[in-house]
Please model this.
Amino acid sequence: MKDEVRDNLRARLREGRDLFPGIVGYEDSAVPRIVNALLARHDFILLGLRGQAKSRILRSLTSLLDEAVPVIAGSEVNDDPTRPISAYGREIVEARGDETPIEWIGRDRRYVEKLATPDVTVADLIGDLDPIKAARGGHLLSDELSMHFGLLPRANRGIFAVNELPDLSGKIQVALFNVMEEGDVQIKGFPVRLPLDVLLVFSANPEDYTARGKIITPLKDRIGSEILTHYPRSLEEAEAITRQEAWAERGLDLQVPLLVREVIERVAFEAREDDRRIDQRSGVSQRMPITMLEAALSNAERRTLTRGEESGAVRLADLYAALPAVTGKLELEYEGELEGVESVAGDLVSRACESAFEERFDDQDAVPVIEYFEGGGVLQISESAPEDLLLQGFASVPGLLDMVRASAAGGEAPEGADLVAACELVLEGLCARRLISRTASGAYARRRGGAR
Model:
């Protein structure tokens, strides 16, 4: 089994093919280590916080299997016709010889995955004696033919994955490492030899070692490689993941300005750095920007349908409407609990806008805009306003459009939805820096103390 994976992996490396399609950001970290583990014929474990594509990586290992392999028809453990391991397989080969019935199974049937929970039993993973099966077949309980095979034997000649490994109780983990090394187990006191041919892979959250359980030392010792995963390290990687995973096909022409995509990713980055209010041991899943973009798209879709139009665009203001997609993804520390999850989520959006603002603009550039509001000017932005009315409103603020267009720095000046998003960013950035304020109704005005 491990030789099969190794041979197919070697062939793909020589061809220069993508080993893990859809996996972004691990090209120079986790992927080379996984390749090394597979070339070394190691069982391995992926360690990382939630939302780091651990399960997707494990499931993508099926692409390294042969397209189909022959098994003895009716075998519960995918018996190799030339080397059967079960009593059923041995008996049928002995009785039928070259006439043994064969079937071919594909890659998907050779991957077995189990989510570890505290209630998993040895019978679930390894097997148990089945009195009914024994009675119907006229077998003794000690006969291997009376055995009901668990998930691990059924993964023979394939890949067996266990997610959240520390959640398995110690005695279940003992059963696993016994199979990994010796290939035999005891079922209700009866020794059964199971020389399984299987690649074992696991995933775990490092914090689970203390929060819910631990991986017992003998099992850790038998796992060949321990590979760390991580969150995207750059905005570009994060944006590529979100663009790939978010559901954006809404039957309408909905534009998502690049600036809006960037701010969404910055919300996650800000959350991962906020160790005062957000529990970093739990992590901030990459699913958060994905669901946030989907919720923002839905708000834009609702606005577009309400106006009876066929096209529209996501605005920065839609990110505040998307906060329900953020709040459920945050585990708060004590200070965050005192502040409230909605307040924390809204502040993350504000800080993300401030971060994007600081990369593009300077407070000095915004002096005409600030002076307009300090002089009593007000800009009311309607959530349902069409693009042309929004631009008229922005044009009424002295220096705002000039500031945005000057930021293009010789590149193509933003127009349309991109221009709207850039103007919103200036206003949101100034609010975040407490240079102007924004009311709950969406009106921008002079600052009021520390209010945003």
Remarks:
- The radius of gyration is 29 Å.
- The longest strand covers residues 198-204.
- The domain at 2-67+107-228 is CATH 3.40.50.300 (Rossmann fold).
- The chain has a mean pLDDT of 89.
